[in-house]
Amino acid sequence: MPELLANPYESVDWERVNRRKAQFHAHSSHPSTDGHSGNEPPDEVIDAYAEAGYAALALTDHEYTVESSNWPWERWNRNPADSEMVGVEGVELGGDADRIPHDTLSLFNDLADTTGMTVDDALDAITERDGVAIFAHPGRYHDASDVDWYVERFEVHPRLLGLEVVNATDRYATDRGVWDAVQSRLGNRRAVWGFANDDYHGREMGYGFDHAYNVLLLTDVTEAAVRAAVEEGRFYWQFVPDEGSPPNIDAIRHDPDRGTLRVVAGDCDVEWIADGEVVGRGDSFRYRALPDGVEYVRVRLVTAEGSEASTQPFLLG
Three-class SS string for the chain? Predict the structure, then answer.
């Protein structure tokens, strides 16, 4: 009979916490290339996300277009504090034959060149720089039947936090299947956080703006608080494919005596996912009713218009 081993929301005071949006995958036109850079300068990208109410933003331009990260923002006459935002230093690593073979979001550090490196070399370099990493759009590279490569990386790189499970307007619909497959294989050995990101390239590029993002549960907006929420999984993600409002999570309650988890949310359908399958529906879920061997569960919320949200995994054992 499973017990709850790890709840990333255990310390959250839902009545006092602020829900603040964060974007960890956005591109600018500096420097402009004929390839895959964004089509708006950094200051315009920063202003756009500030006006949309974001608390944290990383400009993650491709390493094959930059010599260093587009940091600090003062280079673009922007100060994060002026917009009540946290600016996160970052680069999207990989992208051509000379560099690592999987696009990787490198955050909170200055690594900007993986020439001649393996993916493990790059993850080690991020760790040495006290940074964190997220594998971008895994559905571009693997499907749910082919996740050994990810499992091996997550087992040995603790600063590899998770997978991008919604990219832009859901360009790779198998991303979430890969996420569940990886978490199923890892079981309760460690949690893999899921991230949703715009992969912003400009309003005219078809990737979308303010469609896929992460909702951090913060009591204050500082770099330390943002980083702690990201590292410890105190966030959920939202995806709005078209118009409409995303599902909001008002609270998550755990009753250890009854062995239940309950999500308090708005008008939406609630599904409980384990091993990639729906194992329950409705606001409350008895995790002790799961068979032995099921080692995680997460909550998926969907509105009638198709907007989606998900918690991080709860580990069981």
Answer: CCCEEECCCCCCCCCCCEEEEEEEEECCCCCCCCCCCCCCCHHHHHHHHHHCCEEEEEECCECCCCCCCCCCHHHHCCCHHHHCCEEECEEEECCCCCCCCCCEEEECCCCCCCCCCCHHHHHHHHHHCCCEEEECCHHHCCCCCCCHHHHHHHHHCCCEEEEEEEECCCCCCCHHHHHHHHHHHHCCCCCCEEEEECCECCCCCCCCCCCEEEEEEECCCCHHHHHHHHHHCCEEEEECCCCCCCCCEEEEEEECCCCEEEEEECCCEEEEEECCEEEEECCEEEHHHCCCCCCEEEEEEECCCCCEEECCCEEEC
